[in-house]
Design a protein that fits this description.
This protein is an alpha+beta fold. It has eleven helices and 19 strands. The protein has three domains: 31-188, Sandwich (Immunoglobulin-like), CATH 2.60.40; 198-278, no CATH class; 298-433, no CATH class. The chain has helices at 2-27, 67-70, 210-228, 272-276, 281-297, 307-324, 329-345, 349-369, 375-389, 395-407, 409-431, and strands at residues 30-38, 44-54, 56-59, 71-73, 78-82, 89-93, 99-106, 120-122, 128-131, 137-139, 148-155, 161-164, 167-170, 172-177, 184-188, 201-204, 239-246, 253-259, 262-269. The strands form four sheets. It has a six-stranded mixed β-sheet with strand order 4-7-2-1-11-14. The protein has a five-stranded antiparallel β-sheet with strand order 8-9-15-12-13, with no helix packed on it. The structure holds zinc ion. Zinc ion binds next to helix 5 and helix 6. This is Peptidase M1 membrane alanine aminopeptidase domain-containing protein.
């Protein structure tokens, strides 16, 4: 009897604590309204509204300081500055007073940000895709960014569809996001079609040459099959956005990214016709797409500090895929020897993650293949599964743990040393006079 009473009291306490925690959670969330709009004249605006007034709003993602030039405050009492300490961009009033709302006119053109997704990727038919993460701000500072809720709205002329994966509406769409990465929003004339056989929802720029469009659609099924045989299957239907924007400054290239279950491929240059006649354009494109496919199947398991893990693996998986379809071996050998050169000589951390990452992935693959035929893919299968079941604060440690299970402690330790040594060497070079 006595025991029962104690248990009851404990239960009551637990319920009380749960309610208090829920109340705290609900009430410590702050909502930020982010209203994007596009006019008939193709002018783009963003307006922010805060629950409580702030003297500053700080941007969540700060790859550079280009907002200062590219965002024009509608009211000249506001400006975008850079915090000297954190190096983050922020919005404030010239007179330092508090405010509840603020709006900017935007420049909706393509810029490639080195360490972040492009804010805008224009389509030649007047469509546009934009990246929501670029527009997230924290009231005051971002020290507790996890507690912010973003109520997004996108308003466009009625001729436009506003599309997110599995969601589409003419003229306006509302959705909510947390402070996490974000997603890609399509605004333009392309309406959702019938679900295609290959399982992707596709939004493809009509200006892309027919040969490239066909190639893309033809490559999706075998790529899907290849990755499905080796990695945990995708949980949701992915969306593929492919676009092109012309440049007049001689710059050309392509950039891709995977955000959640969206894959974004963007080409830029003088003209696409010129691009596709470049040597190895087909192989380059396939490599690029296979690399992004790998990211899709890596299921968001990205670590910024140890980018060699996912970037190197994506490079190696692309190489393995191209080998499996017997792509031009001269091209493939060239890619590998270029990575070897860069890994040896480069002073660029970013480049090392890709170049050395590819070589390290190859080493891991060979070692695992002595026991398991799927090599590196098998390690990634386990890694993605494990992280899906139980998110870890130290994915790097898990990666090495699983590697040790498949290859032995000695190999995993030797690889760990090799990685540490290369980055220590880089740090020494960078501090040298
Ligand atoms: Zn990548």
């Amino acid at each position: 009897m006595h025991k029962k009473l104690v248990l009851l009291v404990l239960l009551a306490c637990a319920i009380g604590i749960w309610f208090a925690a829920e109340w705290l959670r609900e009430n410590s969330r702050t909502e930020v309204q982010v209203q994007m709009s596009k006019t008939q004249q193709d002018e783009w605006f963003v307006a922010y509204t805060f629950d409580e007034s702030v003297t500053q709003a700080t941007f969540v993602r700060n790859p550079d300081h280009t907002r200062i030039e590219r965002w024009r405050p509608i009211d000249s009492d506001y400006y975008i500055g850079v915090d000297a300490e954190s190096n983050h961009e922020y919005i404030a009033r010239v007179d330092g007073q508090a405010f509840n709302s603020v709006a900017f006119e935007l420049e909706p053109t393509y810029v490639s940000l080195r360490k972040d997704y492009a804010p805008f990727s224009p389509f030649s038919d007047g469509g546009m895709s934009w990246y929501s993460g670029r527009f997230k701000v924290c009231p005051q500072s971002c020290s507790s960014a996890l507690w912010f809720d973003y109520a997004f709205s996108m308003e466009a002329p009625l001729s436009d569809f506003v599309r997110l994966p599995e969601r589409s509406k003419r003229g306006e769409l509302n959705w909510r996001e947390s402070a996490s990465d974000g997603q890609v929003v399509y605004v333009g004339p392309q309406q959702p079609g019938e679900p295609a056989e290959h399982g992707f929802e596709t939004i493809i720029d009509p200006i892309l040459p027919t040969s490239l469009k066909q190639r893309l659609l033809r490559d999706v099924p075998p790529l899907t099959e290849y990755f499905n045989q080796r990695m945990p299957h995708l949980a949701e239907r992915p969306m593929l956005l492919a676009s092109f924007s012309p440049t007049d400054n001689g710059r050309y290239g392509y950039q891709g990214g995977v955000i959640g279950n969206q894959m974004v491929l963007h080409w830029y240059g003088h003209s696409m016709a010129e691009r596709i006649t470049a040597p190895y354009f087909v192989e380059d494109t396939l490599w690029f797409v296979a690399h992004e496919f790998a990211h899709l199947y890596q299921a968001g398991q990205f670590s910024n500090d140890s980018a060699w893990i996912h970037e190197g693996a994506a490079e190696y998986m692309a190489l393995e895929y191209l080998r499996s379809i017997r792509a031009n071996s001269v091209y493939l050998n060239h890619r590998v020897s270029k990575a070897s050169e860069q890994c040896l000589a480069s002073n660029d951390r970013f480049e090392l993650h890709y170049a050395c990452g590819l070589l390290w992935a190859a080493e891991i693959d060979q070692k695992i293949k002595q026991e398991y035929p799927h090599g590196l893919f098998f390690l990634w299968y386990m890694y993605v599964q494990e992280l899906n079941d139980k998110p870890r604060s130290d994915p790097l440690e898990l990666y090495f743990e699983l590697m040790a299970q498949l290859t032995g402690e000695e190999f995993a330790q030797q690889l760990r040393n090799q990685v540490a040594q290369r980055f220590a060497q880089l740090a020494a070079q960078q501090t040298a006079p």
